[in-house]
Amino acid sequence: MDYRYLRWQVVDTPGILDHPLEDRNTIEMQAITALAHLRAAVLYVMDVSEQCGHSLEEQVELFRNIKPLFANKPLIIVANKCDVKRIAELPEESQ
């Protein structure tokens, strides 16, 4: 895509499950490799409604586990499904 004379690309990777690196499947490893080696900013999308089958705590733990792979990249955490559960409805420590 081009925007204001800048060219950029969006890569929508499959979800990455929170389990040891050696237990990750090929698709998960391709996603991690792409994010780690491409010159990019990373958007980490969290489902605050927890309808994805993973608690907010599990999603935060996964973020903490993969964050070192993106140490030199801009990271933006995106709160998804805010129409289902508002950020203000979350416990204070989760906001």
UniProtKB/TrEMBL annotation:
The lineage of its organism: Eukaryota, Metazoa, Chordata, Craniata, Vertebrata. Pfam families: NOG1. GO terms for molecular function: GTP binding. Residues 1-95 form the OBG-type G domain. This is NOG1 protein. The gene is Gtpbp4. Keywords: Nucleotide-binding.
